[in-house]
Amino acid sequence: MVKRRWQDIAIGLVVPVVAIAIWQWVAGMGWVNENILPSPLHVWRKWVAYLLPMQDFATWHEANGGGKLAWMVSGELITDALGSLYRVIVGFLVGAGLALPIGLSMGASRVAYAWLNPLFQLLRPIPPIAYIPLSILWFGLGNPPAIFLIALGAFFPVLMNTIAGVRQVDGIYLRAARNLGASGATMFLRVILPASVPYILTGMRIGIGTAFIVVIVSEMIAVNNGLGFRILEAREYFWSDKIIAGMITIGLLGLAIDAGMNKLNNYLLRWHRGLEH
């Protein structure tokens, strides 16, 4: 099992390694302007400079044969990453926390679905970015408008998947529970809710991915730290290497969050048919 897992990781690294090698080769041949597309080596150096405080970076730079420092060292990466993660987690918890009970009630009750579905179907196609002016008017600048936008982005994936999960419970389960004399509450808690969990967890996985997309946009508009803010700042100074370093950091964080959600799904759904224990 462990050997297979490492084999899967190794296979998954082949394409990124080849892509980086081609990128380095193209940049080394001088086929692209380095100010527009810096080489992976320059991006790596900028990423380290973005990560380490000045004193630590100077030691690292000297140990790796570097000469006089010719570019800015900030050491802001950890602060920015933590700021972005905080907004993602809080916004996701708010959005999913609202979507879950509403989705369960809409899925289980035809009356609730008839009342609420038209409103949510009207609001669902509106992208969270469209709410940016209103969020700033309502909440000002800082974390509140960013958290509002992230919660909005996470709300609808969780809501729609929860509704689908409840409404698509296999009728055989429902009939079997009725024949065994299950009450309405027992039917919901012991049959409908467990059967809809795979849909709900899928919605949460999509929702947290959407939240990570929205946080970058919101940080470019409403806050003065975070990965999105730093990428926008780098664009103003034409630091393309820092832009790419920030983008790679976003990708790594998103990958880590998705991997964590996948492990949580597998743990909670270990009873589900087709998943290994």
Task: State the gist of this model.
With 277 residues, this protein is mostly helical.
Please give a handful of descriptors for the protein shown:
277 residues; mainly alpha; MetI-like fold
Protein described:
With 277 residues, this protein is mainly alpha-helical. The chain folds into two domains: 2-63, no CATH class; 77-268, MetI-like fold, CATH 1.10.3720. The protein contains eleven helices and no strands. It has helices spanning 2-28, 40-51, 54-63, 77-108, 110-123, 132-139, 143-167, 171-179, 184-221, 227-236, 240-268. It is globular, with a radius of gyration of 24 Å. The model is unreliable at 54-58 and 67-73 (pLDDT under 50).
Instruction: Look up the CATH topology of the largest domain.
Output: MetI-like fold
Large-scale geometry:
globular
Mean pLDDT: 80
Number of helices: 11
How many distinct folded domains?
2
| CATH level-two architecture of the largest domain | Orthogonal Bundle
The proportion of strand residues reads under 5%
- Low-confidence sequence ranges: 54-58, 67-73
Explain the layout of strands and helices.
Elements: H1 2-28, H2 40-51, H3 54-63, H4 77-108, H5 110-123, H6 132-139, H7 143-167, H8 171-179, H9 184-221, H10 227-236, H11 240-268
Helix pairs in contact: 2-11, 4-5, 4-7, 4-9, 6-7, 7-9, 9-10, 9-11, 10-11
